[in-house]
């Protein structure tokens, strides 16, 4: 193998290893944040500080989302820069074929993400279903905030599902 090709191949391997480590680190932080959040929520409820739960949940969600966006940024870089020629692993071509066949990510209720999204949306949106939204004054500001947040999250989830399968 030519020295230039060997160096280029080794550089690619090192960059791939670094990108993979970055993705794994961001994912591990997300898992840790979820563990901390569950622990903190349990503690706050046990000592009757429920009012802190919404604030803590919102801050944790923002941090969690920021880490997930770093994963998406790396994935976008790999798609646009690494796999633009035939030197990659062929993942992007494989995903594109699945999108064209409309089999990339079919909707299935029993997938954990979908089940959680549906369950949380039903719980958060239940006041609207029961007709209790006529008098918003009966809800705490925190409840109204989370209701609106649930609507936005549900909308973004549907938009993301459609965009992901059409991209």
List the total number of helices: 5
Low-confidence stretches: none
Question: What is the H/E order?
Answer: HHHHH
Structural class: mainly alpha
Task: Please tell me how large the radius of gyration is.
Answer: 21 Å
Q: Roughly what is the average pLDDT, rounded to an integer?
A: 71
Q: Give the termini separation.
A: 38 Å
Tell me what you see in this structure.
- This protein has 167 residues and is mainly alpha-helical.
- The chain has two domains: 1-104; 105-167.
- The protein is built from five helices and no strands.
- The two termini are 38 Å apart.
- The mean pLDDT is 71.
Which short descriptors sum up this protein?
single chain, 167 residues, mainly alpha, 2 domains, 5 helices, 0% strand, elongated
In short:
Helix content is 78%, strand content 0%.
Spell out the blueprint of helices and strands.
Elements: H1 3-46, H2 51-82, H3 91-100, H4 112-129, H5 141-166
